[in-house]
Amino acid sequence: MLEAARIRPGETVYDLGSGDGRIVITAAQKFKANAVGIEISEVLCKSTLKKINALGLASQVKIVNANALKVDLSPADIVTLYLLTSSNARLKPNLEKYLKPTSRVISLNFGMPGWKVARVETVRVDRQTHTIYVYEMNNRGLDNKTK
Prior knowledge:
Blueprint (H helix, E strand, L loop, with lengths): L1 H4 L6 E5 L5 H10 L2 E6 L2 H13 L6 E5 L12 E4 L3 H14 L5 E5 L10 E7 L2 E9 L11
């Protein structure tokens, strides 16, 4: 997902539903990005924060215990999602409200209803095929299928 996002050093990655923090940690380590994980589970936030501190990434990676539907996403250059299509649809108004025209949204396996996809990549991991949808906020016009 992060490779598909074409992250440049110093960009800010938001991972909505960050779980164990693997996306935000990798964004900081491999891509030299700043990263913010949004996670609703307080238990996951605490365990992820311990990992971040142990890795010495506290200056680059933040974990926020919050509902992704209620977060200001305006600092994000990239937003990563691994949520169901129905959850993506619920997030759409927040993404449209806060994200800059230059921001990208990267969704694993589930598309963003109504948006025109900029790129689709297929990857195979552990004998499973995954689809990565890349959306560019400056070019998210309606998909022909939803007109």
